[in-house]
Amino acid sequence: MQSNPMRKSAFHALPILLLAAACGTDSAGSANSANQNANASAPWFKEVAAERGLDFVHLRGLPKRFWFPEIAAGGGGFLDYNGDGHLDIYLVQSAVLVPDEVPAELADQPFPGNRLYRGKGDGSFADVTEEAGVGDAGYGMGFAVGDTDGDGDQDLFVSNVGRNVLYRNNGDGSFTDVSAASDLEHEGWTTSCAFLDYDRDGDLDLFAANYVNWSPGVEIPCRSHYGDRDYCHPNNYNSPTSDLLYENDGNGHFTDVSRRAGLTENFGNGLGVAVADFDANGYPDVYVANDLLANQLWMNQGDGTFKDEALLAGCAVNMNGTAEAGMGVAAVDIENDGDMDLFMTHLRDETNTCYVNRGGFFSDKTSLTGLGGPSIRFTGWGMGFADFNHDGERDTYVANGRVGIWMPEYDTVDRYAEPNLLFRGLPGGGFEEVLPRGGVAVPLVHNTRATAYGDMDGDGDIDVLVVDNDGPVRLLENTAPDQGHFLQLRVLDAHGFDAVGARVELPGPAAGQRPTQWRGVQVAYSYCASHDPRVHFGLGSASQAASVTVHWIEGQAEVFGPLEVDRSHTLRQGAGQALKR
């Protein structure tokens, strides 16, 4: 594969070679040409992965195979597996897609697997994969985090091309593979996934998106417009599939209820997943970003079934009625009006799209946000919204990376590399791009897939984990200038789970000051990633204690506070002051 001509050595040497190659690419791209304009500022991030103990290098497969799944791989994110309050990191490997194809000189080498890094509390990490027992060596895509058996510990579900895996947390720093016993050993191509309590029975169920029905036997040689061997277009496979819904039976065992719930009525090429209560009926809904097919908005009917209402709701296709190449997706209240909107990344020549929620119906407002124009030259994947500089306006970081060889090329080593983008949030819901591009002193020009967001060092601001396809992981420490005050909240439901779907309202203190802000409790969004579950507010110059209202998904609301600013707080359902309606 031209992105890595040296990969003929043994598996254990690959990360070293890749790291050496990738470290030279930060300054190689032509993306540095636009470092000075009206939006230029001091860097918002510093890349610190190596110095903080992260030595993971993602591998997309054996050289010169060009199998379709290779170009979509690269998942990872945050979790707190040991419950110590410090974020840990799990990174998903994709080294060997078809073991029978491994060359003889590599046959006796162990396949690289997933890695778990324990957060030490000071922003540094230690590799604990072996003692934890979570080094699955399948062809990984992403993962989801949730307490599947109600014992208070976070379990791990790993999505693969092939056998999916559920690791049950033993509570002592180790995990047990219970995939078979839990009936979660689906064989296919699973991408983004999320735990949710879709039936509101008090235990976590699982939604898993599937991409296409793929096997090595369907591969054909494809070439780029320039005659080089390249990855095939998705239309060459023309094999969409349905997504999966597993109901938790209450003891950590799962039953596939996809057909009963209605998910087999529509097929798609699922890549991104976002969970939110889009119509405020008290039940979590699921949005799926599909590649080249209409997106799906699975509206929870409250009786164990879902209906795909994306077309009627206005978020299946773009404003021209065309299905686009949906990659990653986030549910976010961009307008701060109390309901959840959608933001989705797309293939180059298609703008990233913002669908604004109008009471359960969506309107494509991309052109009004400022997020569309800069994205049209790039292929977006992971993304997320956070107030990185604590000025009271959410910003967004967007990861990019190609799926084919196109001109111009930004990097001489990886022909699929593109620069990532950072946008500053503006009053009124608009955005402007921040330069240096991507918010770092020397723009990162790589082939990024997953991005995850969280306060990895406990200093109160949001950092970014960047997972590259076929390259080393990046960890962006938040160094944004002129940071204001903040408020950070862990919001738990009555069962002690992260209250996914709940909305948190922070009222503005007075006219002419900070406006009311809304945040949703989110754990799974972006692309093949898991995130810090804490809700985060930037407060600007406001330093006084603040009260918040939590709108629980069942319809009740509670007021908590006053809460001291520049602190992290835990809010549990039933512990606040009930708000009369």
Record keyword descriptors for this entry:
581 residues, globular, Immunoglobulin-like, 2 domains, mainly beta, 6 helices, five-stranded mixed sheet, Neuraminidase
Provide an overview of this structure:
It is a single chain. With 581 residues, the protein is mainly beta. It folds into two domains: 11-486, Fucose-specific lectin (Neuraminidase); 487-578, Sandwich (Immunoglobulin-like), CATH 2.60.40. The strands form ten sheets. Strands 6, 7, 8, 9, 10, 11, 14 and 15 form an eight-stranded antiparallel β-sheet that branches. Strands 5-4-3-2-36 form a five-stranded mixed β-sheet. A five-stranded antiparallel β-sheet has the order 35-34-38-39-41, with no helix packed on it. A hairpin with an 8-residue loop joins strand 2 (76-79) and strand 3 (88-91). The radius of gyration is 22 Å and the shape is globular. The termini are far apart. The model is unreliable at 1-38 (pLDDT under 50).
* Biggest β-sheet strands, sense, barrel: 8 strands, antiparallel
The helix tally amounts to 6
Q: Round the Cα radius of gyration to an integer and report it.
A: 22 Å
Overall strand count: 41
In the CATH hierarchy, what is the architecture of the largest domain at level 2?
Answer: 6 Propeller
Gross morphology: globular
For the termini, the CA-CA separation is 61 Å
The CATH class of the largest domain turns out to be Mainly Beta
Low-confidence stretches: 1-38
Strand content: 25-35%
Mean pLDDT equals: 90
CATH homologous superfamily caption of the largest domain: Fucose-specific lectin
> How many domains is the backbone divided into?
2
How much helix is in the residues? under 10%
CATH topology of the largest domain: Neuraminidase
What structural class do the secondary elements suggest?
mainly beta
